[in-house]
Amino acid sequence: MKKILILAVGVLMAGFGVWSLFVGSRYQTLCELSYWSATAAELKHCDERAQELQGR
């Protein structure tokens, strides 16, 4: 039981790390800002910019 719990926590942490890298690099590349220090308005603007580039 303890090994399964440790494995589950490790998998969750690894998954979060991959997600964090993907999200952070997306905003860094597209809008040249850090996801972790950007305001909600900056992130919204970046999302709108991404939609414009995709032609939606």
Description:
The structure is a single chain. The protein is an all-alpha fold and 56 residues long. The chain is built from 2 helices and no strands. It has helices spanning 2-31, 40-54. The protein starts with a helix and ends with a helix. The mean pLDDT is 89.
How many strands?
0
- The low-pLDDT segments are none
Helix-and-strand structural type:
mainly alpha
Which percent range fits the helix content? over 70%
Q: Using the CA coordinates, give the radius of gyration.
A: 16 Å
Largest sheet: none
List the helices and strands and how they pair.
Blueprint: H1 2-31, H2 40-54
Features:
80% helix; mainly alpha; elongated; 56 residues; single chain
TL;DR of this structure?
By secondary structure, this protein is an all-alpha fold. Helix content is 80%, strand content 0%. The chain starts with a helix and ends with a helix.
